[in-house]
Amino acid sequence: YISSGRLVRGDLKPASLVGWMVFENTIPPSGDLVSRDALLLYMLKLLKFAGLVSSTCELLETTPTYSSLEERTRRLMTLNFLSAIVTEEENAPLLKDVSEYTARLWDGSKAGSTPLPSYTFVVRAHKPRP
């Protein structure tokens, strides 16, 4: 899963959504972790807690690229955890806020700023036999 990145770290806090604080506890703890070692340790602890033994635990770093502002907005809406839990009434303000946020990111990338990388875990694990 996508473990860390701008959206996960909460850079997008839609001010127009009433009761935003209700959603803050849905951000995974990995969202605040920035070092590779901390992220890997987090995943290994999750696997141990679940009673799994990992044969592979890798962290892939990607810097996303987009051909258009619309493509980037669609992608951010897809990845935004709020899009799965907001009500139908809250979806329009969320899309507006994501669009505005995306426009700021797009302007920054056109000005030469480097987007923050996203990290994705690749895990192979199994339940040990009794």
From TrEMBL:
Protein's recorded name: Juvenile hormone acid methyltransferase
Domain of life, per lineage: Eukaryota
